[in-house]
Amino acid sequence: MAACIVCEGNIDIPEDTEEGEIIECPECGIELEVVSIDPIELAPAPKEEEDWGE
Amino acid sequence: MDNVSFLKDLLNIYSPSGEEKEISNYLCEKLNSLGFNTYCDEVGNVIAKIGSGKPDIILLGHIDTVKGFIDIKEIDGKIYGRGSVDAKGPFAVFVCAVNEIKDILNKSVTIIGTVQEEERSKGARYIVGRYSPDYAVIGEPSGTSGITLGYKGSLEVEYSLKKEMVHHSGKDLTAAEQAIDFWNKIEHFCTNFSKGKKIFDALIPSLISINSLNDDYTQGVVAELNVRTPVDFDVEKFKDWITSNKGEGEVKFIDFRPPVRSSKNSKLIRSFIKSIRRHDGEPVFKLKTGTSDMNVVAEKWKCPILAYGPGESSLDHTPNENISIEEYKKAIEILKYVIRSL
Q: Mean pLDDT across the stretch B244-255?
């Protein structure tokens, strides 16, 4: 279990969670990145940008 | 191998779509000499395999460019040349990264250099049914910290109308006026559909060309249109709508490349996120309004897939196309980590 860095809601972190995984806070819906497994550390997920090309 | 010299060699070989033979031959020879099992297939794609076992990884980048050779120059740490960004730079990153870890490779890697991506992805269409990788990376510029998750779809439409000449002062619309009327309907439909939507979720129409073909007795018009389509958009229904609004004209659907949007949660994406962070980058997901070979292969391969490569997309197809050497080298390091961690 970890706390959402935005709303402090509880987020269940399954045992097989991997570094780099994107998870969604069930309470506020924000996407978070698991930046560390031991200990669990969450950060805002990479931003999504719209781009043109190719 | 000197990685920068290799990129310059690729840029020095002019290879607009349909004229890739020289670069295909060069790559076959070069990659064979590096230890890849390399050959050119029937349409001119370069296929280079190395390693064995699972997973099977495909690194696919196109070796054609748009027209317009640019003299190779190195200024202020940047290499100028046609294709430096789109997409010989990203392709060279594939070759250099795999070459540097080939001796410790415990998986299969196939590098595919496709032809005619800048036209209608002839090379990618040829190979798509011949492979079934576990992971695929498409070589297109995303910036060293960018991970391209998706591309919009692309529907190409040709409208044509030929009819008897009418007097301009009469009440009948001319062929040219009817073509413009048809275009206005398409544009209106797309505008209504796209209200309040982000660009990636919108319908984006373009009138590529419109030409009138009049003689003494007949008047004609041919228009070429393109509509960029979002994911989960019913294209068949849209085509029916287009057909029902063609009036007296004829409509041909020339080509459709389906949209693609990858999941953010796959081992491939996680590996890129980790690698970018380990190389002091801040990962960013990108959704593109254009198309690439990823549109062609993603639907069939059904494996984790993304597009990656150094370079700024805004320089694609421009006379100032250039790539930062520092970014190029960094992208090689990022990809090496990704391949080793898969």
A: 96
Instruction: Tell me, yes or no, whether B181 and B293 share the same domain.
Output: no
Q: Look up tokens 């990788």; give the residue.
A: B133
Q: Are residues B129 and B276 in the same domain?
A: yes
CATH of the domain at B227: 3.30.70.360
Is A36 a residue whose pLDDT tops 70? yes
Residue of A nearest to B202 (CA): A50
Given an 8 Å threshold on Cβ–Cβ distance, is B271 in contact with A20?
yes
Here the tokens at position A19 are: 């570094």
Kindly provide the ipTM of the predicted complex, given to two decimals.
Answer: 0.93
pTM reported for the whole predicted model: 0.94
Could you list the residue range(s) of the whole structural domain that residue B230 is in? 153-257
Q: Does B202 touch chain A (CB under 8 A)?
A: no
Residues B213 and B147 in one domain: no
- Of residues B79, B100, B47, the one with CA closest to residue B311: B79
Angle made by CA atoms B305, B308, B310, in degrees to the nearest 5: 175
* Positions of B marked active-site: 64, 117
